[in-house]
Design goal:
Blueprint lengths: L1 H14 L4 H10 L2 E8 L11 E4 L5 E7 L5 E5 L2 E4 L7 E5 L1 H6 L9 E3 L7 E8 L11 H5 L11 H9 L7 H4 L3
Antiparallel strand pairs: 1-8, 2-7, 3-6, 3-8, 4-5, 4-7
Bound molecules: 2-oxoglutaric acid and fe (ii) ion.
Length: 178
């Protein structure tokens, strides 16, 4: 997972002409949180949401959908789009840290997980973070070129503190916008 995350982040940084080596090194050393989720079958799936609408607070998220049972949905142009599982594939999702670092060019999409009437679904999610020594803010290349930063710059500890102490009725990313 570390290799996949590092190489994805490197490509994403290169596409924006950012200091790709520095950014991928940060993900080489960072914290990776793994969450396994089990969604039991539900006789009334239309009345239940497995994981409610949110965007991830990671840099990027790598998701393994076990058993090819669909459930993940991404909000695209105001519509929920189901991500069809592909055998053995990893779903990569952008988290808030990449949104901030790219000064809003990459967006952390809202997504949710639905439940299935007949089948149990399991997913394994790896939330990939840069090293805790890295400041979380728009990449220095944006400020150098005179582009105004759209997000605050925080230490890793501040970022996590704000996330875990936030009010749930306020959008987390909006709190970090300037
Ligand atoms: O289980 C899934 O498909 C999504 C899980 C997820 O979005 C999360 O854990 O943040
Ligand atoms: Fe998520």
């Amino acid at each position: 997972m570390r290799k996949v995350a590092t190489s994805l982040v490197r490509s994403m940084a290169m596409a924006l002409e950012l200091e790709a080596q520095e950014i991928s090194d940060a993900y080489q050393e960072g914290l990776y949180e793994v969450r396994t989720t089990l969604y039991p079958p539900c006789p009334e799936p239309e009345r239940v949401i497995g994981i409610t609408q949110h965007a991830d607070y990671s840099g990027i998220t790598l998701l393994l959908e076990c058993g090819n049972i669909p459930g993940l949905q991404v909000l695209k142009d105001g519509q929920w789009v189901t991500v069809i599982p592909v055998d053995g594939a990893i779903v990569a999702n952008i988290g808030h840290i990449m949104e901030i670092m790219s000064n809003g060019i990459y967006k952390a999409p809202d997504h949710r997980a639905m439940v299935n009437r007949f089948k149990e679904r399991r997913s394994i999610t790896t939330f990939c973070f840069p090293s805790s020594s890295v400041k979380i803010g728009p990449a220095k290349e944006f400020t150098k070129s005179g582009t105004p930063p759209l997000y605050r710059t925080l230490t890793y500890a501040e970022y996590r503190h704000i996330f875990y102490n936030r009010r749930l009725d306020v959008s987390f990313i909006d709190m970090l916008k300037l």
